Amino acid sequence: MLVNCCRMHLHRGGLVLLPGGSRSISTAFHFYQNKQLELYAAKDAQRLTLRQLVFFGRSMNEDRIIKSANYVRTELPVRIAHRLRDMQTLPYVVVNQESVSDVYEAYWSAFDRFRRYPPLTTLAENDEFCRFLRGLLDEHKSVIPNLSLGLSLSSPYLAPERLDSFMRRMLVSRISRRVLAEHHIALSRYLTAKRNGETVSDDRVGIIHLGLRVKESIEKCARFLRKRPYDADGDAIEGAAADAPWSDVVIDGHLDTKFSYIQAHLEYIVFELLKNSFRATRLRHPTFRQLPPIQITIVAGENDVALRISDQGGGLLTPEIRSPSDQFSFSHIRNPVRLDVSRLGALRRISSSGRGMTATVDEQVSSWQSKSDCEDPQQNAGVNPHPRIGIGLPMSNIFATYFGGSLELVSLDGYGTDVYLRLPKLGTNLEGIELW
Ligand code: COI
């Protein structure tokens, strides 16, 4: 655990945790380490749009892939340094939570490894770099449950606004780093396949799907949920899973809608929203053999693609959780269900099972070159599959707003919930991360 193996000191009014330090490591070394962090943290993030990612990734060749690798190599440590600085300003009682200090330690180690990574000049070096990125992506899979657990437990010590704005910066930045890393790996995989004379499909550039069919993504998420009833039932309807009825998902509106987007992001959001709707509908009508349908309307607007998901699950019906900031909050002061014993227990199990789960080098070699998409929308979005731990809605909101979209819930109390998701379709919005 970090707090046992690191030295801590106060820095600019916040706590500095210096990982990897034993008692023999000198103060001068810590000073040097922190100076390195400051150098990177002082730089602004170079934010990108979806369109830039597509333009750059088109007509990939050796020269471009090396440029892309060096951009990722220099940009990721800047983005990580910003968040390390952010963590350093948290109160001691918060960073002292084991799950928070695990995240700090993982980020410090990643920062240090990026900072030392030499410039890339050849394709062979890029293969090695992709393997390095894949390893980090896998290593960081437990970051979300860890942060969520640590911050839920820290709710008494952080004002809800501060807690939520901190979580938002951490999670949006994480999404952005994973997008850059996954995009680079996907472009490298494409180039390797092309050079090997394999047939490559042109429906994607990197991780961006150029004609993502919204209706197909919805159907895929519904199919996947039916195969894994535990996701929809979770803790609340134990035993009902095997033969419980399912709502039909009825899709209408502009059924042919397609747009350029990151498939994993759209499907994570749809999966989480559908999961909530299936569950609420079942809970609301426990004796029905035929459940009311979930209605999804797709609208292709001039600038966005919009979805309305309407269920008859009774509405939100939680008097304490009313405003959007409460629904999307990670603080138990705003959102008391975060303190549910079952949720905290599940979070604890997931966060501790993530410890030490690093793929071996051999596994990483094969996995960066093989196609990384699987059926599971959570896994594809970089979130380890998990039971109900209360992060689906806040994470969906973060995915939706990352490129300037929005997510809104309207409760028709006693009847159902309407969710409005809007995603920009022109790809011209910059990533919604902080510059610092
Ligand atoms: C994360 O998943 O949190 C990352 O920062 C991944 C990145 C280092 C490749």
TrEMBL record:
The keyword ATP-binding applies. Keywords: ATP-binding, Kinase, Mitochondrion, Nucleotide-binding, Transferase. Signal peptide: none annotated. Its EC number is 2.7.11.-. Residues 47-209 form the Branched-chain alpha-ketoacid dehydrogenase kinase/Pyruvate dehydrogenase kinase N-terminal domain. It is found in: Mitochondrion matrix. The keyword Metal-binding does not apply. Residues 366-382 have a biased composition (Polar residues). It comes from the Eukaryota. Residues 366-386 are annotated as: Disordered. GO terms for molecular function: ATP binding; pyruvate dehydrogenase (acetyl-transferring) kinase activity. GO terms for cellular component: mitochondrial matrix. GO terms for biological process: regulation of glucose metabolic process. Belongs to the PDK/BCKDK protein kinase family. This is Protein-serine/threonine kinase. It comes from Laetiporus sulphureus 93-53.
